[in-house]
Specification:
Length: 160
Protein backbone atom coordinates (compact mmCIF):
# COMPACT_ATOMS: atom_id res chain seq x y z
CA UNK A 1 0.00 0.00 0.00
CA UNK A 2 1.29 3.45 -0.83
CA UNK A 3 0.02 6.92 -0.04
CA UNK A 4 0.08 9.81 -2.46
CA UNK A 5 -0.85 13.23 -1.08
CA UNK A 6 -2.38 15.89 -3.30
CA UNK A 7 -3.35 19.21 -1.76
CA UNK A 8 -5.94 21.50 -3.30
CA UNK A 9 -5.21 25.11 -2.47
CA UNK A 10 -7.80 27.25 -4.23
CA UNK A 11 -8.82 30.66 -2.83
CA UNK A 12 -12.44 30.52 -4.07
CA UNK A 13 -12.98 27.08 -2.62
CA UNK A 14 -11.38 28.10 0.68
CA UNK A 15 -13.81 31.05 0.94
CA UNK A 16 -16.81 28.85 0.16
CA UNK A 17 -15.61 26.21 2.59
CA UNK A 18 -15.06 28.85 5.28
CA UNK A 19 -18.69 29.94 4.87
CA UNK A 20 -19.84 26.34 5.18
CA UNK A 21 -17.68 25.80 8.27
CA UNK A 22 -19.51 28.68 9.96
CA UNK A 23 -22.82 26.89 9.31
CA UNK A 24 -21.83 23.28 10.00
CA UNK A 25 -20.00 22.10 13.10
CA UNK A 26 -18.80 19.02 11.24
CA UNK A 27 -18.09 18.98 7.49
CA UNK A 28 -17.58 15.23 7.07
CA UNK A 29 -20.72 14.85 4.92
CA UNK A 30 -19.50 17.67 2.63
CA UNK A 31 -16.08 16.06 2.34
CA UNK A 32 -17.78 12.72 1.56
CA UNK A 33 -19.47 14.35 -1.43
CA UNK A 34 -16.21 15.87 -2.63
CA UNK A 35 -14.64 12.42 -2.29
CA UNK A 36 -17.36 10.97 -4.52
CA UNK A 37 -16.64 13.62 -7.16
CA UNK A 38 -12.94 12.73 -7.07
CA UNK A 39 -13.60 8.98 -7.05
CA UNK A 40 -15.85 9.27 -10.10
CA UNK A 41 -13.34 11.28 -12.10
CA UNK A 42 -10.47 9.00 -11.06
CA UNK A 43 -12.33 5.90 -12.23
CA UNK A 44 -13.28 7.69 -15.47
CA UNK A 45 -9.57 8.15 -16.22
CA UNK A 46 -9.24 4.40 -16.64
CA UNK A 47 -11.75 4.65 -19.52
CA UNK A 48 -10.26 7.73 -21.18
CA UNK A 49 -6.56 7.09 -20.49
CA UNK A 50 -6.07 10.78 -19.70
CA UNK A 51 -4.47 11.95 -16.46
CA UNK A 52 -5.73 14.76 -14.22
CA UNK A 53 -3.26 17.08 -15.94
CA UNK A 54 -5.06 16.51 -19.27
CA UNK A 55 -2.18 14.53 -20.76
CA UNK A 56 -2.90 11.11 -22.32
CA UNK A 57 -1.17 8.15 -20.72
CA UNK A 58 1.75 6.61 -22.58
CA UNK A 59 0.32 3.70 -24.56
CA UNK A 60 1.46 0.11 -24.12
CA UNK A 61 4.13 -0.99 -26.58
CA UNK A 62 3.09 -4.59 -27.12
CA UNK A 63 -0.66 -4.52 -26.56
CA UNK A 64 -3.58 -2.74 -28.15
CA UNK A 65 -5.53 -2.31 -24.90
CA UNK A 66 -5.47 0.82 -22.78
CA UNK A 67 -2.90 0.98 -19.98
CA UNK A 68 -3.81 0.16 -16.37
CA UNK A 69 -6.98 -1.78 -17.20
CA UNK A 70 -5.86 -5.40 -17.72
CA UNK A 71 -7.75 -6.90 -14.79
CA UNK A 72 -9.35 -3.82 -13.30
CA UNK A 73 -7.82 -4.43 -9.86
CA UNK A 74 -6.09 -1.06 -9.61
CA UNK A 75 -9.25 0.83 -10.61
CA UNK A 76 -11.54 -1.28 -8.46
CA UNK A 77 -9.44 -0.86 -5.32
CA UNK A 78 -9.66 2.93 -5.25
CA UNK A 79 -11.73 4.29 -2.40
CA UNK A 80 -12.31 7.45 -0.41
CA UNK A 81 -12.41 8.36 3.25
CA UNK A 82 -13.47 11.67 4.71
CA UNK A 83 -13.51 13.51 7.98
CA UNK A 84 -14.13 17.00 9.27
CA UNK A 85 -12.25 19.23 6.83
CA UNK A 86 -10.45 16.53 4.83
CA UNK A 87 -10.98 13.90 2.18
CA UNK A 88 -8.62 11.16 1.05
CA UNK A 89 -8.65 9.13 -2.12
CA UNK A 90 -6.73 5.91 -1.75
CA UNK A 91 -5.42 3.28 -4.17
CA UNK A 92 -4.97 0.02 -2.26
CA UNK A 93 -2.95 -1.88 -4.88
CA UNK A 94 0.68 -2.13 -3.74
CA UNK A 95 1.85 -1.16 -7.24
CA UNK A 96 -0.31 1.99 -7.52
CA UNK A 97 2.57 4.39 -6.82
CA UNK A 98 4.68 2.89 -9.64
CA UNK A 99 1.93 3.63 -12.17
CA UNK A 100 1.06 7.03 -10.71
CA UNK A 101 4.66 8.31 -10.61
CA UNK A 102 6.50 5.95 -12.94
CA UNK A 103 9.82 4.32 -12.12
CA UNK A 104 13.31 5.71 -12.43
CA UNK A 105 14.41 3.85 -15.54
CA UNK A 106 15.18 0.12 -15.73
CA UNK A 107 15.16 -2.06 -12.62
CA UNK A 108 15.93 -5.70 -11.85
CA UNK A 109 13.33 -8.24 -10.78
CA UNK A 110 14.70 -11.15 -8.75
CA UNK A 111 12.84 -14.18 -7.37
CA UNK A 112 11.70 -13.93 -3.76
CA UNK A 113 10.85 -17.50 -2.83
CA UNK A 114 12.19 -19.51 -5.75
CA UNK A 115 15.43 -19.92 -7.67
CA UNK A 116 14.21 -18.21 -10.83
CA UNK A 117 11.68 -15.78 -12.28
CA UNK A 118 9.43 -17.34 -14.91
CA UNK A 119 9.15 -15.14 -17.99
CA UNK A 120 6.27 -16.00 -20.36
CA UNK A 121 7.59 -17.09 -23.75
CA UNK A 122 11.19 -16.99 -22.54
CA UNK A 123 11.54 -19.37 -19.60
CA UNK A 124 13.13 -19.18 -16.16
CA UNK A 125 15.76 -16.54 -15.37
CA UNK A 126 17.71 -15.69 -12.19
CA UNK A 127 16.86 -12.04 -12.79
CA UNK A 128 14.95 -10.00 -15.32
CA UNK A 129 15.67 -6.37 -16.14
CA UNK A 130 12.42 -4.46 -16.52
CA UNK A 131 12.69 -1.41 -18.83
CA UNK A 132 10.77 0.77 -16.37
CA UNK A 133 7.25 2.13 -16.16
CA UNK A 134 6.28 5.56 -17.48
CA UNK A 135 4.17 7.71 -15.17
CA UNK A 136 0.46 7.35 -15.85
CA UNK A 137 -1.13 9.55 -13.20
CA UNK A 138 -4.67 8.45 -12.41
CA UNK A 139 -5.13 10.26 -9.10
CA UNK A 140 -5.15 14.01 -8.80
CA UNK A 141 -7.44 16.97 -9.23
CA UNK A 142 -8.19 18.06 -12.77
CA UNK A 143 -9.54 21.43 -13.87
CA UNK A 144 -12.92 19.76 -14.34
CA UNK A 145 -12.74 18.37 -10.78
CA UNK A 146 -12.06 21.88 -9.48
CA UNK A 147 -15.09 23.20 -11.38
CA UNK A 148 -17.34 20.41 -10.09
CA UNK A 149 -16.18 20.86 -6.51
CA UNK A 150 -16.55 24.66 -6.73
CA UNK A 151 -20.07 24.29 -8.18
CA UNK A 152 -20.99 21.83 -5.41
CA UNK A 153 -19.69 24.20 -2.72
CA UNK A 154 -21.47 27.17 -4.31
CA UNK A 155 -24.76 25.24 -4.32
CA UNK A 156 -24.33 24.50 -0.62
CA UNK A 157 -23.49 28.12 0.17
CA UNK A 158 -26.59 29.31 -1.72
CA UNK A 159 -28.78 26.84 0.19
CA UNK A 160 -27.78 28.18 3.60
Amino acid sequence: MSTITITLDDADMRRAFSTLRQRFSNTTHIMDEIGEILLGSTQERFKTGIGPDGIAWVSLKRESRKPLVKGGTLRDQISTRAGDGWVEIHAAANYARFHQEGTQGPYDIRPKDKKAVKVPGVGARKKVTHPGIPARPFMGISDDDRKQIAAFLQRLVQEI
